[in-house]
């Protein structure tokens, strides 16, 4: 068994059948499939450690608490956080961004006339929360454009920062539509020079890039567990400790208080200050095997393998008449390709691909302004790869796409 065959053998879902066909799963940017080690631990948590955490002294609660906090340790080590306390569990990237946006707004860290700087290529999860915060505070949002290749216009970024008033820059590590890896360390340094905080949406970046939050020096880094092989329903907010300390709690409830009286409350210490209520403790525990699996996929061998499949898809899609790819290929390209085809609607193509066992994403991909306003499309198709995919699946996809287009045109 080869190295990559061994990786694939660890993911049970890949042996599924869809409409009588072998599954070709190419929607990894939406949700990754999970290795057996994650499934086993989740089952164990449900069967042997199903009790609320941090609240009781009995054995099941103690074990659930231990597994939960082991998940925190694993995340802190994976992103090289300076301490465990600056890793906050949420329900996903969306919840993490909303936490920061709401806490900054309520805590007086955003006010009338302040600027929140975003790029044109942001996912709704890193766009709408800031629009809501701007409505609440009177702050305004400005956008850094992307060029036709999908890359940030760094000259415009410099100009917008130089204008002053920027309190926060929120940017995707990797666009979920364009697949371009943004130079986040460089951008962070530029923003810090004018006193702005930086939040990085790492929903795609955590999967395809080695993330060192101390090296990047970002103030916040957020991502979802289900993108990086855990069980859905959990996410991460990393924040610099001094900034998290300055933010007010986002939600109130159990586990986030030091004391409560009829007259008020005092919040407990980080990270529980931001973890009100009963968390998805069984899912959080699976960060340990999920990140072990992710760590086994690091290195040049995997990068080269993924680049080869991405290059093949670029070449083959380029041979199809009327096919236009958004986000050009290069060394800063993640294994994620979005495209449109003339004479065939993206949803129709996706359905015909599904009939052949091929799963891809179609539509606006939660990036409506980018797709409709910037690029003038009603939707796109997206193919996104993981290391458990293989070249044979890429070939099956191309053949299935050719067949679908022949039926629709």
Notable features of this structure?
409 residues, alpha/beta, Aspartate Aminotransferase, domain 1, Aspartate Aminotransferase, domain 2, 2 domains, 4-stranded antiparallel beta sheet, 16 helices
Describe this structure in words.
- By secondary structure, this protein is α/β, with parallel strands linked by helices.
- It has 2 domains: 3-30 and 299-408, Aspartate Aminotransferase, domain 1; 39-294, Aspartate Aminotransferase, domain 2 (3-Layer(aba) Sandwich).
- It is 40% helix and 17% strand.
- The protein is built from 16 helices and 17 strands.
- Strands 4-10-9-8-7-5-6 form a 7-stranded mixed beta sheet, with helices on both faces. The chain has a 4-stranded antiparallel beta sheet with strand order 13-14-17-16, covered by helices on one side. Strands 1-2 form a two-stranded antiparallel sheet.
- A hairpin with a 2-residue loop joins strand 1 (17-18) and strand 2.
- It is globular, with a radius of gyration of 22 Å.
- The mean pLDDT is 97.
How are the strands of the biggest sheet laid out side by side?
4-10-9-8-7-5-6
Query: Could you name the ranges where pLDDT drops below 50 across 5 or more consecutive residues?
Result: none
Please report the number of helical segments. Answer: 16
Any guess at the CATH architecture of the largest domain? 3-Layer(aba) Sandwich
Question: What is the fourth-level CATH superfamily of the largest domain?
Answer: Type I PLP-dependent aspartate aminotransferase-like (Major domain)
Q: How would you describe the shape? A: globular
Distance between the termini: 42 Å
* Largest sheet geometry: 7 strands, mixed
Overall number of structural domains: 2
Work out the helicity level.
Answer: 40-55%
Binned strand content? 15-25%
The strand count comes to 17
Counting helices, strands and paired strands, the structural category is alpha/beta
CATH class of the largest domain: Alpha Beta
Rg over alpha carbons: 22 Å
Mean pLDDT: 97
From the 3D structure, determine the CATH topology of the largest domain: Aspartate Aminotransferase, domain 2
